[in-house]
């Protein structure tokens, strides 16, 4: 019986293998292997020839370590201590030095503080009704776009052949002199707020804008105060009740019963209080001393290509560098940045019309009786702005 059992067992294994092959006839990933035949209990597993793999590690002929000592021994060989400290000094745990807040910083390089604005001037002001009427007029008459004057007209501007125009409220005379660009004027004591303008602009945007020409453009003119007059006669000194004269520039159209600087698109310096006005219907801002008889005062604006690109967060359209300056008796007395931000309540609209994007006309404001001269031509100026 024992001799027959192994044969039956082999027969059953061959039948099982045949059935398994029929279940996976086309599966390349799985092919059952045939069981070994004639494997009796007396047969033993034969190991593969040669020594086991571990024997290679102990054989000096199969493996040789790299020459030289291990890496950690190199530093010890080059240094007696085995460690070389860094060349820089050890870090300090002391706190950083504190700023001495008791020292007064040098603020000479800082920009000047903004001028103090006033709600009203300490000298005589126009009536609130006139101001409200001018405000409504400006809203109804927006600023004009720049005009493309022909070359002949622009040649007259370049030669300072500018004529003064008399507004309806002006009570006095305008007398052109022999030299082109020179005028003598006087007003009566009953003269109300009036603004003299020229027939042609001194700054023609289409011709003069540095964004077009890539070079600076300066406009400038002067006036001389000859006398002030009151209802009882001529006077040669100023007082709070004396008449006034203002010098500045305006962008058209402008209400001519208002002084330059009081409305949008205008700036001016006034003789009675020395304040500067930039689209300011209130009291202006501190700037200079009041004008005196025989003073020759001038006002100018220099438009220049921008020296630096717009800062982050600012409008990216090109913006001119603008300097407004004021002179007295041939000496530059002060000025301001034409791009400076204005008080939103006192200067509604800011510097609109004064940024080099509109034509600009010389403007001379008068109130009360006075006598003065106007100089548009450089030959008669006391100050040279060029």
TrEMBL record:
<dbReference type="GO" id="GO:0016020">
    <property type="term" value="C:membrane"/>
</dbReference>
<feature type="compositionally biased region" description="Pro residues">
    <location>
        <begin position="86"/>
        <end position="98"/>
    </location>
</feature>
<keyword id="KW-0472">Membrane</keyword>
<keyword id="KW-1133">Transmembrane helix</keyword>
<dbReference type="InterPro" id="IPR050618">
    <property type="entry name" value="Ubq-SigPath_Reg"/>
</dbReference>
<protein>
    <recommendedName>
        <fullName>SPRY domain-containing protein</fullName>
    </recommendedName>
</protein>
<dbReference type="InterPro" id="IPR035780">
    <property type="entry name" value="SPRY_Ssh4-like"/>
</dbReference>
<feature type="compositionally biased region" description="Polar residues">
    <location>
        <begin position="23"/>
        <end position="39"/>
    </location>
</feature>
<keyword id="KW-0812">Transmembrane</keyword>
<dbReference type="InterPro" id="IPR043136">
    <property type="entry name" value="B30.2/SPRY_sf"/>
</dbReference>
<feature type="region of interest" description="Disordered">
    <location>
        <begin position="1"/>
        <end position="127"/>
    </location>
</feature>
């Amino acid at each position: 019986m024992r001799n027959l059992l192994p044969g039956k067992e082999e027969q059953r294994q061959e039948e099982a293998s045949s059935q398994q092959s029929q279940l996976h006839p086309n599966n390349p990933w799985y092919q059952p292997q045939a069981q070994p035949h004639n494997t009796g209990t007396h047969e033993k597993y034969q190991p593969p020839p040669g020594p086991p793999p571990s024997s290679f590690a102990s054989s000096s002929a199969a493996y040789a370590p790299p020459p030289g000592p291990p890496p950690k021994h190199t530093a010890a060989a080059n240094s007696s201590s085995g460690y070389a400290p860094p060349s820089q000094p050890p870090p300090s745990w002391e706190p950083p030095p504190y700023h001495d807040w008791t020292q007064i910083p040098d603020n000479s390089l800082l920009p000047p503080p903004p001028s103090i604005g006033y709600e009203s001037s300490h000298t005589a002001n126009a009536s609130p009704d006139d101001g409200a009427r001018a405000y409504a007029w400006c809203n109804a008459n927006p600023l004009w776009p720049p005009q493309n004057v022909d070359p002949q007209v622009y040649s007259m501007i370049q030669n300072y052949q500018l004529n003064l125009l008399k507004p309806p409220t002006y009570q006095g005379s305008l007398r052109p002199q022999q030299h082109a660009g020179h005028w003598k004027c006087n007003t009566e004591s009953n003269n109300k707020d009036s603004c003299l303008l020229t027939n042609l602009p001194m700054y023609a945007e289409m011709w003069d804008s540095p964004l077009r020409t890539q070079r600076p453009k300066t406009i400038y003119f002067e006036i001389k105060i000859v006398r002030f007059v009151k209802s009882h006669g001529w006077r040669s000194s100023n007082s709070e009740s004396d008449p006034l004269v203002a010098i500045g520039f305006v962008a058209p159209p402008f209400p001519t019963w208002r002084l330059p600087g009081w409305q949008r698109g205008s700036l001016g310096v006034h003789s009675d209080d020395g304040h500067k006005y930039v689209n300011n219907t209130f009291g202006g801002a501190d700037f200079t001393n009041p004008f005196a008889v025989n003073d020759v005062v001038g006002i100018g604006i220099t438009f220049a290509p921008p020296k630096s690109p717009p800062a982050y967060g600012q409008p990216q359209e090109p913006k001119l560098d603008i300097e407004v300056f004021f002179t007295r008796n041939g000496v530059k007395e002060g000025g301001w940045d034409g791009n400076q931000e204005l008080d939103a309540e006192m200067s509604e609209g800011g510097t609109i019309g004064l940024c080099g994007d509109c034509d600009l006309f010389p403007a001379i404001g008068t109130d009360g009786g006075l006598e003065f001269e106007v100089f548009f031509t450089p030959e008669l100026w006391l100050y040279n702005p060029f």
